[in-house]
Every structure is written in structure tokens, then in C-alpha cells.
């Protein structure tokens, strides 16, 4: 067993690894990350995850629900640290997995992967508490500077393959069309589905939110692409979605959202990312912005980044041959939230955030498009690359969104373990002398 | 001459030697951990050199925030006059509910189209709590105005019954009363200053004051002039928790002081206020001298009897988080120490509903402990919310239209450069 494997075992048990080992790990991780572009290309199938925020036991629950590394290919969209009590273990485990299985896990940067933010929201204090010095925090921050800013998922299937066989009642009630989204609870039971109307009509989808409870084949390990059991729709075959005039565009993954300074994916590639997250500019916006029900751009109440509306998303997606933007950054009580006709989705993966918000979490599976015999249509966001081939008014290519399977899960019961006693209350209209806030010692 | 002014004069006359020499640990003031220290800005720590002047004559040129030149423990607890921090004071007459109130406020008017920062202090404090911070705001944004008020039963604000009954007016410190007072003061200030219209307003409230300005923002009484509001170090959830320990605290702090200097010393030594210059200007307004004192050796007592306000405490903070999130305008929550958000604010923060900033090295009195940092944050907050300066990128529809006209020339941003959509900042 290599040192790295041993470190993984130790971290999986939620025990920090010694400082020299952290140093070596961070060094290796940097060597690996420096080779990655600002926008990493990732081939489907992939499971996309949102904020983790040091909720280690919930991360374990995520792996249980989504499948383990390297069996499942993962993409984490940042905010690994801060607020939760195990930022250190969570981030180091993800980093170990990255170094051990570089092609099976992708980490991109969130706004909390920053020196300034971690100093205030817990990660810095946690490192001091667990190691007695800021060295480990410093090593980690150096890794933060090398994390990619986004990822482009290619080759996702437009159609979901149902995980199990539907029971007769559900089957007969199924409308015409292909399975577009499916929501599963942590037991692998389907709780709701939506179907896409069959091809070449408009892009409207019929929504079907009947509660379809079991019976499901929950013995199948989650995250493993099941063998094709035939398309869900009545007449739709796998081939139909792979016809010339239809293509699944790429999926752009980024922590926050869009920037007015970035009108193409290539603009992201031009950023000099190896630095602390700046207070403004393209890099800041990608990590801080939020979608909102507005037209155009708006001021972000966060004090950094922008708000962007549906028109901005549609335009950006169209221009860059994207079918979807997946992002994290905002707490959604239901774990995920699609906006703007499915043009953007927020994925949030920290259940019961901060041990008190009462939300569920979700991860997003995108399946592999096997219809072209595994050939991935490179859709890398090069604007105009298809000029002269098929882009004209009569043969407008129709980009359909990928089939989306959301796995919703709740907080792990054991994450309350090791929670510090209630923090000393602050005194609100007067400061109580002598009662400095004492940082609770945890995780020891 | 108000009681308040008398207090200053007396303090100067008394010139009591400070009992124990105050050990001024300069390194500790506006302290920080190693990291924050690295990018700490200038800062207002240390005793001032003002003391060679034994009077309270305003002299704007005085270098209040300079490092002290020489060991002068005594000077470190001398009072500083408000005149070094604000341009003038206002006395606004207010007859309401059979009461005659003279609202006292400090003001430095804005220049040109500058905004007016309206400050409301916390329970037991006064308008001078914002003195250091106000001055720092002005150095960063010279056109800004500051209006810092003394709430009822605080500082220089006086309150009498109109009727001739000798009975003391009944203590009213309900949140809605304080909110109405603030709106009245802002409106009256406009008249007193002969402004044609109100400048853009940024409300800033510390502690109880944070609850008041949030209530005012939610009520919408100041209309569209309200640009943004900032709440300093108060969160509904943890404030409610803290109420239980308030009485214990009140019973343990000294009830009286021998002099203003010893009052200042107590505040700095107990680290209630962690900045000597701030304490020197704010503490004198918290104390008053009793005429026929039961303890003549220690005649200075608290101006506001906080224990009597107990039955108002809960009412101040109930519903604060909800109102904070719902009111219109830019929102800033500035906390000291760590973030102690309650559930509602935690969700709001993680959904990006407001701006949160935490000053890890500050005590509860953020604006006094770290006046320059607090001022910088408030100025940046204003600039971001300034409607005149904000030019957002074009909407897609407009962009397409102009693109159709110019054929192919779109809006090309400079990648990675500074935000080009705002006016350059000075």
C-alpha cells in the first residue's frame, strides 16, 4: 500500500494526516493542477457536485449515494472548505483522490478557496487548531491558486436511461418522449421525472411530477451506468437523438456564474488564474456571480460579482454551443434548482448547511452518449467553428440539454459527532470583558 | 450650556491625575493575528499628541491619530472633544406624546452630491461612538456627510414632560419609538440645514442601532433616498441568546467612576473599547456627574440606566433578521470576531442576499475598535451601491440591436482587468 493510499484510508476515517505529508501532497497536487487549463475538459459520464464546506460526514454520504472514486467520475465545483468543522479532512481527502485518480475527479475553484475568505470563515482557524501553525493552511492556499476556474463536460447524453425497470403503472402512464430529468432520493428511489417531447417540435418539455416510489433495483451500485434497457419513450430510440440535426451541447461548470467580461468560453482560458481571487474582474465574477430573475446584468448584493438574467444565459449558451451551465455557490433548500428553461442549474451538496439550515443536498449525474459509438462531438465552445458546415437558417442545429439525474440526499446522522459545545454567547449591546470568544477544540 | 458640555469642561478643570498609570500596549491595539497584520492599514491606535493643549478648542489640524511621541500615560486617558470629529451639533425640538424632546445630533454636512451616512449607536452608547469612524470616512470620501444621533436617554438628547407634573416621563425605548425618532431627526435635519432635498442616505446602526435602522429601512419612511443600510455586530439569534447574560454583565461593571479619565481607562483596560483615541472621545458622553453624589469621591455615573431598559430588550431584536433581508436597499452586515449568523441570515447569506464582512480582530464596538477598517468597508459599500456611479453592462437585447447596426462590433470586455463598468475611483 502506497503512502498515498494510506493517507486516503486515514482521511476517510476523518483523521488528519501529518504536516510533512500534507506538504508533499500539496506539492504533487500543484504539479498536476498546473498542467490543467483554466477550463478543464471532462468526458461524460460524470457526477457534478456543488458546495461541500467542510461537512466531511456529508461528503462520505455523497460518495455513498453517488458511488465511490474511482468507480464514479466526479466533478466538484468548489467551496470545499469553511463553515463546517472538517474543512481540512474534506479538502485533503479530495486532493488525495485527485492525485491518486487524476482522470476520475476534477476540482475547480470556489470563492471560498481564497486566503482572505478562509481567514474569516473557519478553515484558517481549523488548521491552527489541528496543527498548531498556519503551515498547512498555507500549503492548501497555494493549491487553491492552481485550481481550474471551470470545466466543460463533453459527450453527455440527451436522454436518460432509466436506472431500473419501471413498474407497469408507471410505464403505462408514461407520456411520449424521452426521459429528460429524474430525481432520486438517497435510497435510489425515483421521486419525480420529466419527459422531453419527441424531437424537432419545440423545446418544451412535459413535466410529470407524480410520485413514483419504489420498486427500484437499489441493489445496483449507484453511479454505475446501467446496461441499456431500452429507451424510456415509446418510439424514441437512441439513434434518433443522435441524428445530424440534433446535438447535445457541452455543459459549462463554474462555481458562481457568468461575467460581463466573459462572452465566450475562450475568454476564460485567457485569464491568468494563478493568484488569490481578486476583488473584481472576470475571475472574481466567475466565482461570485449569481443568476437572477432579471433582464441583463445587475448589482450583486454579495458585494462581489454580478447578477445575470435569463437573456444573458441564453445568449451565452447559444454563442458557445452549450446546452447547460451547471454552477453551485447558492444554497437551494431542495438541493438543486433549474432556471431559465433549463439553461442553468444550481447544484448544492452540503445538506443541512452549517448544521442548521435544514436543506437537502443534491448531485447531478450526466450520462454518456453512446449513440455515436462513443465518439464525442467536440463541442468546446469555439464560437463559429461550425461556420460553413451546417449553420444556416434552414438547417439550424438543435441543441438539446443533457439528460439530468439528480440524486438528493440528507445530512449524515453522524456529522453531529464531535460538534463543539454551544459557542459562548456574544454579548450584544455591550462587550463582556474577560469573556473572549474561545475557539472550541474539535476533531482531536 | 448643556450637561454634556459641562461634563467636558469639568473634566478639563478637574484634571485629576490618573490613578494607576495606564500601560498602553500599543501593539495590542487593533490587534490581529499574523495574517491580518500583514495587510493592516494605517490605523488609529495609540494615544494622541493632543494633550499639550489643555483646552477643548477645536483645532482641526491636530494629528489625532498619530503615534504618541513620548511616554505620557496621563494623556492617554484625557477626553477628546467632539469638535475634532464633527463639524457641528444640532438640537432639534420635538413635541410628541406630551413630551418635549430635544434631539441632539452631530453633523458634518456632505459636499455637492455626496451621500449622508446616518449613524445610530447601540444601547448605552452615544453619537460619539461613531466619531473616530466618521473622521476616517471623511478622509476616504471627502464629499461624504455624517449625521450621528444621540438616541432618547442617551448622550445629549434631553426629554421632559410638557405637563407641569413633577413626575418623570415614562421610559419609552420601544423599537418603533426609536425608529420614529430617527426618521424625525433626518427630516428635521434637512430643514435645519436648509437642504432643498435629502442627500442619498446610507443608514448605519451598531447593535441596538442596527435594529433601529433596519426597522426604518423596512418601514420605507425615508423613501427612495435610502440607498443602503449597514448593520454592525448584531444578529437576532445570538442577540436573543445574549440577553440572558446581560443583567449579570450590568451588575459586574463599575457603577461609578472618580473621573472621566478613570472611566476612559476602565473602557480601554477592560478592552470594552480597544482603541484609546475612540474611547477618549466616546466615553465622556456615556457618563454624567452627580451633583449631590452619594459617593463624592466617585461622582461619575452612567448616563443611561440600562438595567431599567430591560423590558424593551426583546422587542428590539425580534424579527430583525427577517426585516434585514426584506427591506429595500443595499445590505451590509459587519460582524466582529466570528460570524454568528442565525439560521435565517445563514440561508440568506448563502443565497447571496446581502454582503457579509467579518473583522476577526475587533471587539463588539467595531466602529471604535477599528475605525479605519470600518470606515473603508462603509465607503466601499457606499460606492458599490451609488446609483450615479453604477453603469451596468448592456442587456442582450440592446447589444444585439447595436450589433446589428455596427455589424460585428460587439462589446468586448478586457479579460482579467479591473471592472470597467464603474467610474474610476479616486
UniProtKB/TrEMBL annotation, chain A:
Keyword Transport assigned: no
Domain Serine/threonine specific protein phosphatases, first and last residues per copy: 108-113
Catalysis: reaction(s): O-phospho-L-threonyl-[protein] + H2O = L-threonyl-[protein] + phosphate
Transmembrane segments: none
Domain of life, per lineage: Eukaryota
MF terms in GO: metal ion binding; protein serine/threonine phosphatase activity
Stretches the record annotates as Disordered: 201-243
One GO term (biological process): negative regulation of DNA damage checkpoint
EC category: hydrolase
EC id: 3.1.3.16
Pfam families (UniProt xref): Metallophos
Listed InterPro entries: Calcineurin-like_PHP (IPR004843), Metallo-depent_PP-like (IPR029052), PPA2-like (IPR047129), Ser/Thr-sp_prot-phosphatase (IPR006186)
GO cellular component terms, semicolon-separated: nuclear periphery; protein phosphatase 4 complex
The family this protein is said to belong to: Belongs to the PPP phosphatase family.
Record's protein name: Serine/threonine-protein phosphatase
Taxonomic lineage from the root: Eukaryota, Fungi, Dikarya, Ascomycota, Pezizomycotina
TrEMBL record, chain B:
Region (Disordered): 20-55
EC main group: hydrolase
Catalytic function, reaction form: [phosphatase 2A protein]-C-terminal L-leucine methyl ester + H2O = [phosphatase 2A protein]-C-terminal L-leucine + methanol + H(+)
Keywords: Hydrolase, Serine esterase
Domain AB hydrolase-1, residue spans: 117-373
MF GO annotations: protein methylesterase activity
Cleaved signal peptide residues: none
Keyword Amino-acid biosynthesis on entry: no
Gene3D superfamilies: alpha/beta hydrolase
Bilayer-crossing regions: none
InterPro entries: AB_hydrolase_1, AB_hydrolase_fold, PPase_methylesterase_euk
Enzyme Commission designation: 3.1.1.89
Functional note: Demethylates proteins that have been reversibly carboxymethylated. Demethylates the phosphatase PP2A catalytic subunit.
Family note: Belongs to the AB hydrolase superfamily.
Protein name per Swiss-Prot or TrEMBL: Protein phosphatase methylesterase 1
Organism for this UniProt entry: Elaphomyces granulatus
Amino acid at each position: 500500500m502506497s503512502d498515498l493510499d494510506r493517507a486516503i484510508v486515514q482521511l476517510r476515517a476523518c483523521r488528519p494526516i501529518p504536516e510533512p505529508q500534507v506538504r508533499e501532497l500539496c506539492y504533487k497536487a500543484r504539479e498536476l493542477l498546473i498542467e490543467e487549463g483554466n477550463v478543464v475538459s471532462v468526458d461524460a459520464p460524470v457526477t457534478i457536485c456543488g458546495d461541500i464546506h467542510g461537512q466531511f460526514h456529508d461528503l462520505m454520504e455523497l460518495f455513498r449515494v453517488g458511488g465511490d472514486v474511482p468507480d464514479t467520475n466526479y466533478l466538484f465545483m468548489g467551496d470545499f472548505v469553511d463553515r463546517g468543522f472538517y474543512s481540512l479532512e474534506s479538502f485533503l481527502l479530495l486532493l488525495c483522490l485527485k492525485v491518486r485518480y487524476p482522470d476520475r475527479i476534477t476540482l475547480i475553484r470556489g470563492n471560498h478557496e481564497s486566503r482572505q475568505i478562509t481567514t474569516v470563515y473557519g478553515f484558517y482557524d481549523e488548521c491552527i487548531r489541528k496543527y498548531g501553525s498556519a503551515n498547512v493552511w498555507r500549503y492548501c492556499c497555494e493549491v487553491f491558486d492552481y485550481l481550474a476556474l471551470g470545466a466543460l463536460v463533453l459527450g453527455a447524453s440527451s436522454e436518460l436511461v432509466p436506472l431500473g425497470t419501471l413498474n407497469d403503472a408507471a410505464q403505462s402512464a408514461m407520456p411520449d418522449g424521452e426521459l429528460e430529468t429524474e430525481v432520486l432520493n438517497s435510497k435510489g428511489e425515483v421521486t419525480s421525472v420529466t419527459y422531453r417531447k419527441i424531437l424537432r417540435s419545440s423545446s418544451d418539455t412535459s413535466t410529470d411530477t407524480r410520485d413514483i416510489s419504489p420498486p427500484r433495483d437499489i441493489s445496483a451500485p449507484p453511479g454505475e451506468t446501467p446496461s441499456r434497457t431500452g429507451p424510456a419513450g415509446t418510439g424514441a430510440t437512441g439513434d434518433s437523438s443522435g441524428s445530424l440535426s440534433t446535438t447535445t451541447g457541452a455543459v459549462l461548470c463554474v462555481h458562481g456564474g457568468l461575467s460581463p467580461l466573459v462572452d465566450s468560453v475562450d475568454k476564460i482560458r485567457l485569464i491568468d488564474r494563478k493568484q488569490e481571487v481578486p476583488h473584481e474582474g472576470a475571475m472574481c465574477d466567475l466565482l461570485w456571480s449569481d443568476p437572477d430573475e432579471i433582464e441583463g446584468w445587475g448589482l450583486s448584493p454579495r458585494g462581489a460579482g454580478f447578477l445575470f438574467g435569463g437573456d444573458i444565459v441564453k445568449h451565452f449558451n447559444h454563442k458557445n454551443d452549450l446546452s447547460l451551465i451547471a454552477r453551485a455557490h447558492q444554497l437551494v433548500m431542495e438541493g438543486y434548482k433549474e432556471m431559465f428553461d433549463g439553461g442553468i442549474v444550481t447544484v448544492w451538496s452540503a445538506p443541512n448547511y452549517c448544521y442548521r439550515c435544514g436543506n437537502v443536498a443534491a448531485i447531478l449525474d450526466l450520462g454518456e452518449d453512446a449513440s455515436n459509438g462513443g465518439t464525442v462531438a467536440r463541442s468546446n465552445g469555439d464560437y463559429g467553428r461550425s461556420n460553413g458546415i451546417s449553420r444556416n437558417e434552414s438547417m439550424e442545429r438543435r441543441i438539446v440539454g443533457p439528460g439530468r439525474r439528480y440524486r438528493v440526499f440528507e445530512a449524515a446522522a453522524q456529522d453531529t459527532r464531535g460538534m463543539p459545545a454551544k459557542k459562548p454567547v456574544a454579548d450584544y449591546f455591550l462587550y463582556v470583558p474577560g469573556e473572549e470568544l474561545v475557539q472550541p477544540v474539535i476533531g482531536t | 450650556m448643556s450637561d454634556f458640555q459641562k461634563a467636558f469642561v469639568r473634566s478639563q478643570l478637574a484634571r485629576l491625575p490618573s490613578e494607576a498609570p495606564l500601560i498602553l500596549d500599543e501593539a495590542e491595539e487593533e490587534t490581529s493575528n499574523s495574517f491580518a497584520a500583514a495587510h493592516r492599514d494605517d490605523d488609529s491606535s495609540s494615544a494622541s499628541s493632543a494633550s499639550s493643549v489643555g483646552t477643548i478648542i477645536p483645532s482641526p489640524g491636530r494629528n489625532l491619530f498619530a503615534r504618541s511621541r513620548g511616554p505620557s500615560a496621563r494623556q492617554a486617558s484625557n477626553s477628546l472633544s467632539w469638535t475634532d470629529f464633527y463639524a457641528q451639533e444640532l438640537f432639534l425640538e420635538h413635541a410628541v406624546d406630551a413630551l418635549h424632546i430635544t434631539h441632539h445630533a452631530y453633523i458634518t454636512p456632505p459636499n455637492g452630491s455626496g451621500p449622508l451616512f446616518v449613524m445610530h449607536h447601540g444601547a448605552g452608547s452615544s453619537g460619539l461612538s461613531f466619531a473616530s469612524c466618521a473622521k476616517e470616512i471623511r478622509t476616504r470620501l471627502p464629499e461624504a456627510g455624517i449625521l450621528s444621533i444621540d438616541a432618547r436617554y442617551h448622550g445629549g438628547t434631553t426629554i421632559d414632560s410638557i405637563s407641569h407634573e413633577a413626575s418623570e416621563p415614562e421610559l419609552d425605548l420601544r423599537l418603533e419609538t426609536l425608529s420614529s425618532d430617527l426618521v424625525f431627526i433626518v427630516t428635521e435635519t434637512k430643514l435645519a440645514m436648509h437642504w432643498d432635498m435629502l442627500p442619498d442616505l446610507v443608514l448605519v446602526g451598531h447593535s441596538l442601532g442596527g435594529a433601529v435602522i433596519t426597522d426604518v429601512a423596512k418601514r420605507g419612511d425615508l423613501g427612495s433616498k435610502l440607498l443602503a443600510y449597514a448593520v454592525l455586530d448584531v444578529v437576532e439569534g445570538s442577540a436573543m441568546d445574549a440577553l440572558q447574560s446581560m443583567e449579570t454583565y450590568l451588575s459586574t461593571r463599575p457603577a461609578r467612576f472618580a473621573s472621566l479619565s478613570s472611566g476612559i481607562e476602565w473602557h480601554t483596560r477592560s478592552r470594552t473599547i480597544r482603541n484609546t483615541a475612540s474611547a477618549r472621545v466616546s466615553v465622556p458622553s456615556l457618563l454624567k456627574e452627580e451633583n449631590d453624589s452619594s459617593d463624592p469621591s466617585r461622582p461619575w455615573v452612567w448616563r443611561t440606566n440600562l438595567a431599567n431598559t430591560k423590558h424593551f430588550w426583546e422587542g428590539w431584536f425580534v424579527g430583525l433578521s427577517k426585516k434585514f433581508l426584506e427591506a429595500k436597499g443595499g445590505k451590509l452586515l459587519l460582524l466582529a470576531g466570528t460570524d454568528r449568523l442565525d439560521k435565517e441570515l445563514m440561508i440568506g447569506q448563502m443565497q447571496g442576499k446581502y454582503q457579509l464582512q467579518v473583522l476577526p480582530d475587533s471587539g463588539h464596538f467595531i466602529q471604535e475598535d477599528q475605525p479605519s477598517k470600518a470606515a473603508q468597508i462603509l465607503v466601499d459599500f457606499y460606492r458599490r451601491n451609488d446609483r450615479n456611479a453604477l453603469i451596468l453592462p448592456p442587456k442582450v437585447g440592446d447589444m444585439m440591436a447595436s450589433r446589428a447596426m455596427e455589424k460585428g462590433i460587439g462589446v468586448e470586455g478586457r479579460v482579467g482587468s479591473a471592472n470597467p463598468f464603474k467610474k474610476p475611483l479616486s
